[in-house]
Amino acid sequence: MTSFEDEKRRIVQEAKIRDDLKGKDPGVAILLSFFLPGLGDLYCGSWVKAIIFFILDILNLFLVFFGVGVIFHGIVWFFGLISASLSAKKSASRKIQRLGRSLSEQS
Q1: Which pLDDT value is given to residue 45?
Q2: Using CA atoms, how far apart are residues 5 and 94, in angstroms rounded to an integer?
Q3: How far apart are CA 24 and CA 18, in angstroms?
Q4: Confidence of residue 1 (pLDDT cuts 50, 70, 90)
Q5: 68 φ, ψ to 5°?
Q6: Do residues 30 and 84 make contact, with C-beta atoms less than 8 angstroms apart?
Q7: Which of 12, 28, 49, 95 is the most buried (most CB within 10 A)?
Q8: Three-state secondary-structure class, residue 68
Q9: What secondary structure letter does DSSP report for 36?
Q10: Is 38 left (phi over 0), alpha (psi -120 to 50) or beta?
Q11: Helix, strand, or coil (residue 72)
């Protein structure tokens, strides 16, 4: 009976670790960046890229008065979608690296 409980506990722990190491969902990241460039990067934990996209979006507000903000916004929006997708795909590898560092520090 103890063997069965140990096996059950091991399976649950493996499932929890697998879920913890799963990266962010690229679909959610893209959807968030669809509405506001940088929001998908923020969701994925890429703070620097998120801040850059937020600054570029604020810059767009000023450029609208000069007639080039709409074109610039389209470019920033497009690259924001791509950046969010790439950040989501990299989020799993960042989690694995952090786990590896924490495990090596414990040893």
Answers
A1: 87
A2: 33
A3: 13
A4: low
A5: -110, -5
A6: yes
A7: 49
A8: coil
A9: S
A10: left
A11: helix
Whole-Å CA distances, 102 to 6, 48, 58, 97: 25, 23, 38, 9
Q: Tokens 């903000």 map to which residue?
A: 69
pLDDT of residue 73: 86
Q: What is the CA radius of gyration of the chain?
A: 20
Residue 72: other Cβ atoms inside 10 A:
16
Q: Which helix (H) or strand (E) holds 20?
A: helix 2-21
**pTM of this structure:** 0.71
Length of the chain: 107
* Distance from the Cα of residue 8 to its chain's centroid: 32
**Closest CA relative to residue 26, chosen from 71, 72, 83:** 83
Over the stretch 19-78, which tens digit does the pLDDT of each residue have? 666 778 889 999 999 999 999 999 998 999 999 999 999 998 888 888 888 888 889 999
